[in-house]
Amino acid sequence: MNDIKERIAAELIAVRDRSLAYTDAEDDLLVRQHSPLMSPLVWDLAHIGNYEELWVLREAAGITPLRPEIDDLYDAFKHPRKDRPSLPILGPAEARRYIEGVRGRVLDVLDAIDLESRSPLHRDGFVFGLVIQHEHQHDETMLATWQLSGQPGLVRDGALPPGRTGGPDEVLVPAGPFRMGTSTLAWAYDNERPAYQVELPAYWIDRLPVGNAAYAAFVDEGGYDDPRWWTAEGWAWRARRGVSAPLFWARDGGAWWRTRFGRTEPVPMDEPVQHVSWYEADAYAHWAGKRLPTEAEWEKACGWDPEAGRARRYPWGEQEPTRDLANLGHRAARPAPLGAYPAGASAYGAEQMIGDVWEWTSSWFQPYPGFRSFPYREYSEVFFGQEYRVLRGGSWAADPAAVRTTFRNWDYPIRRQIFTGFRCARTAELT
User: Fold this and answer.
1) Is the pTM of this model over 0.90?
2) Which of 40-44, 57-61, 127-131, 426-430 has the least mean pLDDT?
3) How far is CA 389 from the centre of its chain?
Protein backbone atom coordinates (compact mmCIF):
# COMPACT_ATOMS: atom_id res chain seq x y z
CA MET A 1 0.00 0.00 0.00
CA ASN A 2 2.97 2.33 0.47
CA ASP A 3 3.59 2.20 -3.29
CA ILE A 4 -0.01 3.23 -3.93
CA LYS A 5 0.25 6.09 -1.45
CA GLU A 6 3.49 7.26 -3.02
CA ARG A 7 1.86 7.29 -6.44
CA ILE A 8 -1.17 9.19 -5.11
CA ALA A 9 1.13 11.75 -3.46
CA ALA A 10 3.05 12.18 -6.72
CA GLU A 11 -0.21 12.66 -8.67
CA LEU A 12 -1.41 15.24 -6.14
CA ILE A 13 1.84 17.19 -6.47
CA ALA A 14 1.84 17.00 -10.28
CA VAL A 15 -1.72 18.22 -10.70
CA ARG A 16 -1.21 21.07 -8.24
CA ASP A 17 1.93 22.18 -10.07
CA ARG A 18 -0.19 22.29 -13.21
CA SER A 19 -2.97 24.32 -11.59
CA LEU A 20 -0.51 26.84 -10.21
CA ALA A 21 1.22 27.15 -13.57
CA TYR A 22 -2.09 28.00 -15.28
CA THR A 23 -2.83 30.67 -12.67
CA ASP A 24 0.65 32.22 -12.61
CA ALA A 25 -0.49 35.53 -14.06
CA GLU A 26 -1.35 39.09 -13.15
CA ASP A 27 -4.28 39.33 -10.75
CA ASP A 28 -6.34 41.24 -13.30
CA LEU A 29 -6.21 38.30 -15.71
CA LEU A 30 -7.21 35.87 -12.98
CA VAL A 31 -10.24 37.78 -11.69
CA ARG A 32 -11.49 38.87 -15.11
CA GLN A 33 -14.18 36.88 -16.89
CA HIS A 34 -12.78 36.29 -20.35
CA SER A 35 -16.01 34.77 -21.66
CA PRO A 36 -19.49 34.25 -20.18
CA LEU A 37 -18.99 30.58 -21.05
CA MET A 38 -16.21 30.30 -18.48
CA SER A 39 -15.50 31.17 -14.84
CA PRO A 40 -12.79 33.61 -13.79
CA LEU A 41 -9.61 31.58 -13.44
CA VAL A 42 -9.37 32.39 -9.74
CA TRP A 43 -12.81 30.85 -9.18
CA ASP A 44 -11.57 27.55 -10.66
CA LEU A 45 -8.49 27.69 -8.44
CA ALA A 46 -10.38 28.08 -5.17
CA HIS A 47 -13.12 25.67 -6.29
CA ILE A 48 -10.46 22.97 -6.69
CA GLY A 49 -9.46 23.46 -3.05
CA ASN A 50 -13.05 23.59 -1.81
CA TYR A 51 -13.91 20.33 -3.61
CA GLU A 52 -10.82 18.70 -2.14
CA GLU A 53 -11.71 19.91 1.35
CA LEU A 54 -15.26 18.63 1.00
CA TRP A 55 -14.43 15.13 -0.18
CA VAL A 56 -11.10 14.27 1.44
CA LEU A 57 -11.14 16.26 4.65
CA ARG A 58 -14.84 16.31 5.52
CA GLU A 59 -16.37 13.24 3.88
CA ALA A 60 -13.46 10.79 3.98
CA ALA A 61 -11.66 11.97 7.15
CA GLY A 62 -14.39 13.68 9.18
CA ILE A 63 -12.34 16.84 9.74
CA THR A 64 -14.11 20.00 10.88
CA PRO A 65 -14.67 22.36 7.90
CA LEU A 66 -11.93 24.93 7.37
CA ARG A 67 -13.94 27.55 5.46
CA PRO A 68 -17.64 26.55 5.54
CA GLU A 69 -18.65 30.12 4.76
CA ILE A 70 -17.30 29.82 1.20
CA ASP A 71 -19.06 26.58 0.29
CA ASP A 72 -21.94 28.38 -1.38
CA LEU A 73 -19.59 30.53 -3.50
CA TYR A 74 -17.95 27.47 -5.02
CA ASP A 75 -21.03 25.34 -5.55
CA ALA A 76 -21.03 24.92 -9.32
CA PHE A 77 -24.72 23.99 -9.35
CA LYS A 78 -25.91 27.12 -7.55
CA HIS A 79 -24.06 29.69 -9.60
CA PRO A 80 -23.83 29.59 -13.43
CA ARG A 81 -20.47 30.56 -14.85
CA LYS A 82 -21.74 33.85 -16.21
CA ASP A 83 -22.72 34.96 -12.68
CA ARG A 84 -19.54 34.01 -10.84
CA PRO A 85 -17.64 37.30 -11.31
CA SER A 86 -20.30 39.06 -9.22
CA LEU A 87 -19.75 36.74 -6.24
CA PRO A 88 -17.49 37.74 -3.31
CA ILE A 89 -14.98 35.03 -4.24
CA LEU A 90 -11.46 34.74 -2.83
CA GLY A 91 -8.80 36.85 -4.48
CA PRO A 92 -5.71 35.22 -6.02
CA ALA A 93 -3.45 35.44 -2.97
CA GLU A 94 -6.13 34.22 -0.58
CA ALA A 95 -7.14 31.42 -2.95
CA ARG A 96 -3.54 30.19 -3.09
CA ARG A 97 -3.25 30.23 0.71
CA TYR A 98 -6.54 28.37 1.03
CA ILE A 99 -5.68 25.56 -1.37
CA GLU A 100 -2.22 25.23 0.19
CA GLY A 101 -3.78 24.82 3.64
CA VAL A 102 -6.21 22.21 2.36
CA ARG A 103 -3.48 20.29 0.55
CA GLY A 104 -1.27 20.08 3.63
CA ARG A 105 -4.08 18.43 5.58
CA VAL A 106 -4.94 16.16 2.65
CA LEU A 107 -1.40 14.78 2.62
CA ASP A 108 -1.71 14.09 6.35
CA VAL A 109 -4.93 12.18 5.68
CA LEU A 110 -3.24 10.20 2.90
CA ASP A 111 -0.47 9.20 5.29
CA ALA A 112 -2.95 7.89 7.87
CA ILE A 113 -5.75 6.44 5.76
CA ASP A 114 -6.37 2.71 5.30
CA LEU A 115 -6.61 2.07 1.57
CA GLU A 116 -7.90 -1.47 2.23
CA SER A 117 -10.86 -0.15 4.20
CA ARG A 118 -14.35 -1.36 3.33
CA SER A 119 -15.36 2.28 2.92
CA PRO A 120 -15.84 2.88 -0.82
CA LEU A 121 -14.33 6.37 -0.47
CA HIS A 122 -11.17 4.97 1.14
CA ARG A 123 -10.72 1.72 -0.76
CA ASP A 124 -7.88 1.86 -3.31
CA GLY A 125 -7.65 5.61 -2.70
CA PHE A 126 -10.88 6.33 -4.60
CA VAL A 127 -11.41 9.71 -2.93
CA PHE A 128 -7.92 10.83 -3.96
CA GLY A 129 -8.55 9.69 -7.51
CA LEU A 130 -11.76 11.70 -7.40
CA VAL A 131 -10.03 14.97 -6.48
CA ILE A 132 -7.01 14.37 -8.75
CA GLN A 133 -9.21 13.81 -11.80
CA HIS A 134 -11.46 16.72 -10.83
CA GLU A 135 -8.48 19.07 -10.65
CA HIS A 136 -7.13 17.90 -14.00
CA GLN A 137 -10.53 18.50 -15.56
CA HIS A 138 -10.56 22.04 -14.21
CA ASP A 139 -7.04 22.55 -15.51
CA GLU A 140 -8.26 21.65 -18.98
CA THR A 141 -11.12 24.10 -18.46
CA MET A 142 -8.56 26.75 -17.52
CA LEU A 143 -6.74 26.11 -20.80
CA ALA A 144 -9.99 26.61 -22.69
CA THR A 145 -10.44 29.89 -20.79
CA TRP A 146 -6.96 31.04 -21.75
CA GLN A 147 -7.67 30.17 -25.39
CA LEU A 148 -10.87 32.22 -25.33
CA SER A 149 -9.06 35.13 -23.67
CA GLY A 150 -6.75 35.65 -26.65
CA GLN A 151 -3.89 36.24 -24.22
CA PRO A 152 -0.42 35.16 -25.39
CA GLY A 153 1.42 32.51 -23.47
CA LEU A 154 0.76 28.89 -22.56
CA VAL A 155 1.66 27.93 -26.13
CA ARG A 156 3.91 24.97 -25.52
CA ASP A 157 5.40 23.90 -28.79
CA GLY A 158 7.02 20.76 -27.51
CA ALA A 159 8.10 18.12 -29.97
CA LEU A 160 5.42 15.78 -31.30
CA PRO A 161 5.98 12.75 -33.53
CA PRO A 162 5.64 13.38 -37.27
CA GLY A 163 2.49 12.28 -39.01
CA ARG A 164 2.42 9.71 -41.74
CA THR A 165 0.41 9.33 -44.90
CA GLY A 166 -1.01 6.19 -46.40
CA GLY A 167 -2.93 3.42 -44.75
CA PRO A 168 -6.63 2.65 -44.90
CA ASP A 169 -9.15 5.43 -44.36
CA GLU A 170 -11.39 3.14 -42.30
CA VAL A 171 -11.10 -0.01 -40.21
CA LEU A 172 -13.73 -2.72 -39.95
CA VAL A 173 -15.15 -3.72 -36.58
CA PRO A 174 -16.89 -7.08 -37.08
CA ALA A 175 -20.29 -7.85 -35.63
CA GLY A 176 -20.46 -9.36 -32.19
CA PRO A 177 -20.72 -8.64 -28.48
CA PHE A 178 -18.34 -6.74 -26.23
CA ARG A 179 -18.26 -5.60 -22.62
CA MET A 180 -18.87 -1.86 -22.34
CA GLY A 181 -17.85 0.14 -19.28
CA THR A 182 -15.99 -1.19 -16.26
CA SER A 183 -16.69 -2.83 -12.94
CA THR A 184 -13.04 -3.11 -11.91
CA LEU A 185 -11.06 0.10 -12.52
CA ALA A 186 -10.50 1.63 -9.09
CA TRP A 187 -10.80 5.29 -10.05
CA ALA A 188 -13.52 4.99 -12.68
CA TYR A 189 -16.52 7.29 -12.23
CA ASP A 190 -20.04 6.10 -11.54
CA ASN A 191 -21.18 6.77 -15.13
CA GLU A 192 -18.60 4.25 -16.41
CA ARG A 193 -20.12 1.50 -14.25
CA PRO A 194 -21.12 -1.28 -14.29
CA ALA A 195 -19.72 -3.18 -17.26
CA TYR A 196 -22.41 -4.80 -19.37
CA GLN A 197 -22.65 -6.71 -22.63
CA VAL A 198 -23.53 -4.89 -25.85
CA GLU A 199 -24.20 -6.57 -29.19
CA LEU A 200 -23.27 -4.51 -32.26
CA PRO A 201 -23.60 -5.17 -35.99
CA ALA A 202 -20.50 -4.78 -38.14
CA TYR A 203 -19.43 -1.23 -38.93
CA TRP A 204 -16.58 0.79 -40.38
CA ILE A 205 -14.96 3.57 -38.37
CA ASP A 206 -12.38 6.11 -39.51
CA ARG A 207 -8.86 5.01 -38.73
CA LEU A 208 -7.96 8.60 -37.78
CA PRO A 209 -9.87 11.67 -36.60
CA VAL A 210 -11.15 13.97 -39.33
CA GLY A 211 -8.32 16.31 -40.28
CA ASN A 212 -8.22 20.02 -41.01
CA ALA A 213 -7.71 19.46 -44.75
CA ALA A 214 -10.82 17.29 -45.01
CA TYR A 215 -12.85 19.71 -42.91
CA ALA A 216 -11.65 22.70 -44.95
CA ALA A 217 -12.95 20.91 -48.06
CA PHE A 218 -16.37 20.65 -46.41
CA VAL A 219 -16.29 24.40 -45.68
CA ASP A 220 -14.99 25.34 -49.13
CA GLU A 221 -17.64 23.23 -50.86
CA GLY A 222 -20.44 25.09 -49.12
CA GLY A 223 -21.11 22.70 -46.27
CA TYR A 224 -22.19 25.51 -43.98
CA ASP A 225 -24.63 26.83 -46.55
CA ASP A 226 -26.50 23.63 -47.37
CA PRO A 227 -29.27 22.60 -44.96
CA ARG A 228 -29.25 19.04 -46.32
CA TRP A 229 -26.35 18.15 -44.06
CA TRP A 230 -27.67 19.67 -40.84
CA THR A 231 -30.24 18.71 -38.27
CA ALA A 232 -33.05 21.25 -37.91
CA GLU A 233 -31.64 22.36 -34.55
CA GLY A 234 -28.12 22.57 -35.95
CA TRP A 235 -29.21 24.61 -38.97
CA ALA A 236 -31.08 27.05 -36.72
CA TRP A 237 -28.04 27.35 -34.43
CA ARG A 238 -25.70 27.92 -37.38
CA ALA A 239 -27.94 30.64 -38.81
CA ARG A 240 -28.53 32.33 -35.47
CA ARG A 241 -24.84 32.45 -34.58
CA GLY A 242 -23.55 33.14 -38.08
CA VAL A 243 -21.22 30.14 -37.86
CA SER A 244 -19.25 29.47 -41.04
CA ALA A 245 -16.08 27.66 -39.91
CA PRO A 246 -14.55 26.09 -36.79
CA LEU A 247 -14.11 28.42 -33.84
CA PHE A 248 -10.88 30.44 -34.06
CA TRP A 249 -10.61 29.93 -37.85
CA ALA A 250 -10.55 32.86 -40.31
CA ARG A 251 -9.90 33.05 -44.03
CA ASP A 252 -7.28 35.52 -45.23
CA GLY A 253 -5.85 35.76 -48.70
CA GLY A 254 -7.42 32.51 -49.78
CA ALA A 255 -5.88 30.56 -46.91
CA TRP A 256 -7.19 29.44 -43.57
CA TRP A 257 -5.66 30.85 -40.39
CA ARG A 258 -6.33 30.09 -36.75
CA THR A 259 -5.76 31.88 -33.47
CA ARG A 260 -4.10 29.68 -30.87
CA PHE A 261 -3.45 31.15 -27.42
CA GLY A 262 -3.13 34.68 -28.76
CA ARG A 263 -1.04 33.78 -31.79
CA THR A 264 -2.30 33.76 -35.38
CA GLU A 265 -0.89 31.02 -37.60
CA PRO A 266 -1.80 29.03 -40.71
CA VAL A 267 -4.16 26.13 -40.03
CA PRO A 268 -2.00 22.97 -40.15
CA MET A 269 -3.82 20.81 -42.64
CA ASP A 270 -2.33 17.58 -41.29
CA GLU A 271 -3.79 17.94 -37.77
CA PRO A 272 -7.17 16.74 -36.49
CA VAL A 273 -9.78 19.48 -36.65
CA GLN A 274 -10.72 20.92 -33.25
CA HIS A 275 -13.13 23.48 -31.80
CA VAL A 276 -16.16 22.17 -33.67
CA SER A 277 -19.59 21.63 -32.15
CA TRP A 278 -21.60 18.44 -32.32
CA TYR A 279 -23.81 20.09 -34.92
CA GLU A 280 -20.80 20.80 -37.15
CA ALA A 281 -19.39 17.31 -36.69
CA ASP A 282 -22.74 15.74 -37.52
CA ALA A 283 -23.14 17.93 -40.62
CA TYR A 284 -19.69 17.01 -41.90
CA ALA A 285 -20.40 13.31 -41.37
CA HIS A 286 -23.58 13.52 -43.46
CA TRP A 287 -21.77 15.50 -46.15
CA ALA A 288 -19.12 12.77 -46.26
CA GLY A 289 -21.79 10.08 -46.65
CA LYS A 290 -21.22 8.74 -43.16
CA ARG A 291 -22.41 9.40 -39.61
CA LEU A 292 -20.98 9.90 -36.16
CA PRO A 293 -20.30 6.66 -34.28
CA THR A 294 -22.47 5.73 -31.36
CA GLU A 295 -20.78 5.77 -27.99
CA ALA A 296 -20.79 1.96 -27.96
CA GLU A 297 -19.23 1.79 -31.42
CA TRP A 298 -16.55 4.23 -30.36
CA GLU A 299 -15.68 2.27 -27.19
CA LYS A 300 -15.57 -1.10 -28.92
CA ALA A 301 -13.28 0.21 -31.67
CA CYS A 302 -11.08 1.85 -29.06
CA GLY A 303 -10.78 -0.63 -26.24
CA TRP A 304 -12.08 -4.11 -27.01
CA ASP A 305 -9.59 -6.92 -27.59
CA PRO A 306 -11.49 -9.57 -29.60
CA GLU A 307 -8.79 -12.23 -29.30
CA ALA A 308 -8.51 -11.93 -25.52
CA GLY A 309 -12.26 -11.36 -25.15
CA ARG A 310 -11.76 -8.45 -22.74
CA ALA A 311 -11.49 -4.70 -22.59
CA ARG A 312 -8.19 -2.85 -22.60
CA ARG A 313 -7.58 0.15 -20.37
CA TYR A 314 -6.04 1.98 -23.33
CA PRO A 315 -6.33 1.20 -27.04
CA TRP A 316 -2.88 -0.42 -27.10
CA GLY A 317 -3.25 -2.37 -23.83
CA GLU A 318 -2.51 -1.79 -20.16
CA GLN A 319 0.77 0.15 -20.51
CA GLU A 320 0.58 3.71 -19.21
CA PRO A 321 0.53 6.37 -21.96
CA THR A 322 3.94 7.49 -23.18
CA ARG A 323 5.09 10.05 -25.72
CA ASP A 324 5.13 7.32 -28.36
CA LEU A 325 1.56 6.21 -27.74
CA ALA A 326 -0.63 9.31 -27.35
CA ASN A 327 -0.65 13.10 -27.21
CA LEU A 328 -1.76 13.88 -23.65
CA GLY A 329 -0.83 16.13 -20.75
CA HIS A 330 -0.26 19.41 -22.63
CA ARG A 331 3.06 18.30 -24.06
CA ALA A 332 2.27 20.69 -26.88
CA ALA A 333 -0.73 23.00 -27.08
CA ARG A 334 -2.11 21.38 -30.21
CA PRO A 335 -3.14 18.05 -31.67
CA ALA A 336 -0.41 15.87 -33.15
CA PRO A 337 -0.28 15.31 -36.92
CA LEU A 338 -2.52 12.60 -38.30
CA GLY A 339 -0.90 9.19 -38.17
CA ALA A 340 1.62 10.18 -35.49
CA TYR A 341 0.93 7.26 -33.15
CA PRO A 342 0.83 3.91 -34.98
CA ALA A 343 2.02 2.15 -31.80
CA GLY A 344 -1.08 3.48 -30.03
CA ALA A 345 -3.52 1.74 -32.38
CA SER A 346 -6.39 -0.30 -31.02
CA ALA A 347 -6.88 -4.00 -31.67
CA TYR A 348 -8.96 -3.09 -34.73
CA GLY A 349 -6.36 -0.65 -36.08
CA ALA A 350 -8.02 2.64 -35.13
CA GLU A 351 -5.45 5.31 -34.24
CA GLN A 352 -5.33 8.44 -32.10
CA MET A 353 -8.46 7.49 -30.19
CA ILE A 354 -6.84 8.66 -26.94
CA GLY A 355 -5.51 12.21 -26.78
CA ASP A 356 -5.35 14.95 -29.43
CA VAL A 357 -9.08 15.87 -29.49
CA TRP A 358 -12.22 14.88 -27.62
CA GLU A 359 -14.41 13.05 -30.12
CA TRP A 360 -18.14 13.65 -30.46
CA THR A 361 -20.38 10.61 -30.66
CA SER A 362 -24.00 10.42 -31.76
CA SER A 363 -25.16 9.28 -28.31
CA TRP A 364 -26.98 11.18 -25.61
CA PHE A 365 -25.51 10.97 -22.11
CA GLN A 366 -27.46 8.16 -20.46
CA PRO A 367 -26.84 5.75 -17.54
CA TYR A 368 -25.70 2.19 -18.10
CA PRO A 369 -27.99 -0.64 -16.93
CA GLY A 370 -27.50 -1.06 -13.19
CA PHE A 371 -26.10 2.46 -12.71
CA ARG A 372 -25.84 3.73 -9.13
CA SER A 373 -24.82 7.28 -8.21
CA PHE A 374 -21.57 7.52 -6.26
CA PRO A 375 -20.42 9.47 -4.40
CA TYR A 376 -23.02 12.15 -5.30
CA ARG A 377 -25.88 12.55 -7.77
CA GLU A 378 -24.56 15.78 -9.21
CA TYR A 379 -21.51 14.23 -10.80
CA SER A 380 -23.47 12.26 -13.42
CA GLU A 381 -27.12 11.55 -12.69
CA VAL A 382 -28.47 15.08 -13.00
CA PHE A 383 -27.05 15.33 -16.54
CA PHE A 384 -28.66 12.19 -17.96
CA GLY A 385 -31.23 12.71 -20.68
CA GLN A 386 -31.41 14.17 -24.17
CA GLU A 387 -29.59 17.43 -23.54
CA TYR A 388 -25.91 16.46 -23.55
CA ARG A 389 -23.97 14.53 -26.20
CA VAL A 390 -21.18 12.16 -25.23
CA LEU A 391 -17.54 12.85 -26.06
CA ARG A 392 -14.79 10.27 -25.80
CA GLY A 393 -11.02 9.88 -25.82
CA GLY A 394 -9.53 12.96 -24.17
CA SER A 395 -7.58 15.77 -25.81
CA TRP A 396 -3.99 17.00 -25.88
CA ALA A 397 -4.95 19.05 -22.80
CA ALA A 398 -6.25 16.05 -20.83
CA ASP A 399 -3.98 14.34 -18.33
CA PRO A 400 -3.37 10.57 -18.48
CA ALA A 401 -4.77 10.27 -14.95
CA ALA A 402 -8.17 11.31 -16.28
CA VAL A 403 -8.23 9.32 -19.54
CA ARG A 404 -9.07 5.69 -20.35
CA THR A 405 -11.12 3.80 -22.93
CA THR A 406 -14.20 3.82 -20.67
CA PHE A 407 -14.04 7.50 -19.63
CA ARG A 408 -17.16 9.48 -20.60
CA ASN A 409 -17.32 13.23 -21.13
CA TRP A 410 -20.44 15.14 -22.11
CA ASP A 411 -21.46 18.62 -23.19
CA TYR A 412 -24.13 20.61 -24.98
CA PRO A 413 -24.09 20.06 -28.77
CA ILE A 414 -23.37 23.78 -29.32
CA ARG A 415 -20.05 23.75 -27.41
CA ARG A 416 -16.96 24.68 -29.42
CA GLN A 417 -14.55 26.27 -26.94
CA ILE A 418 -13.49 22.84 -25.67
CA PHE A 419 -10.83 20.88 -27.54
CA THR A 420 -13.26 18.82 -29.59
CA GLY A 421 -13.02 16.96 -32.88
CA PHE A 422 -14.53 13.72 -34.22
CA ARG A 423 -14.23 10.74 -36.51
CA CYS A 424 -16.92 9.17 -38.68
CA ALA A 425 -18.46 5.73 -38.97
CA ARG A 426 -20.79 3.85 -41.29
CA THR A 427 -22.70 0.61 -41.08
CA ALA A 428 -21.07 -2.29 -42.92
CA GLU A 429 -23.14 -3.58 -45.81
CA LEU A 430 -24.31 -7.18 -45.52
CA THR A 431 -23.01 -9.50 -48.21
Assistant:
1) yes
2) 426-430
3) 13
Question: pLDDT (tens digit, 9 = 90+) per residue, 220-233?
Answer: 999 999 999 999 99
Residue 145 belongs to domain with CATH number: 1.20.120.450
Q: In CATH, what number is assigned to the domain containing residue 410?
A: 3.90.1580.10
pLDDT digits (tens, 9 = 90+) for 48-59: 999 999 999 999
190 and 119 fall within a common domain = no
If asked whether residues 131 and 202 sit together in one domain, one would say no
Strand partners, 314: 317
Q: CA of 382: how far to CAs of 72, 142, 376, 378, 401, in Å?
A: 19, 24, 10, 5, 24
